[in-house]
Amino acid sequence: MVHSLSALSLLDKFDVLVCAEDYERGKPAPDCFLTAAARLGVEPRDCLVFEDTEMGIEAATAAGMASVRVPTALERA
């Protein structure tokens, strides 16, 4: 992700990044979202997650976060 954001000149737009190597269990475990909240210094209950997969929504719910399901381009077509 860091390389992609750098190539697009977007890396400096983010204060915090959480990448796969930063947590142990992948979705639907809540680890990625809990890691992000901790790094941001925000309580999980104060977070809003935008996700494009049901597994991501499950992970957000397990983290105690509100979530919004964003349909993919294929789903919108």
- By helix and strand content, what is the structural category? alpha+beta
- Kindly identify the CATH topology: Rossmann fold
What form results from the Cα inertia axes? globular
Question: N-to-C terminal Cα separation, in Å?
Answer: 27 Å
Identify the CATH class.
Answer: Alpha Beta
What is the arithmetic mean of pLDDT? 95
What does this structure look like?
- With 77 residues, the protein is of the alpha+beta class.
- The protein has helices spanning 2-7, 31-40, 54-62, 73-76, and strands at 48-51, 66-69.
- Strands 1-2 form a two-stranded parallel ribbon.
- It contains four helices and two strands.
- Helix 3 links the parallel strand 1 and strand 2 (66-69).
- It has one domain: 3-Layer(aba) Sandwich (Rossmann fold), CATH 3.40.50.1000.
- The model has no long low-confidence stretch (mean pLDDT 95).
- The radius of gyration is 13 Å and the shape is globular.
- The longest helix is centred in the middle third of the chain and has 10 residues, at 31-40.
List the helices and strands and how they pair.
Elements: H1 2-7, H2 31-40, E1 48-51, H3 54-62, E2 66-69, H4 73-76
Parallel strand pairs: 1-2
Quick rundown:
The protein is α+β, with helices and mostly antiparallel strands.
For this entry, give a set of tags:
single chain; 2 strands; two-stranded parallel sheet; globular; Rossmann fold; alpha+beta; 77 residues; 4 helices; 38% helix
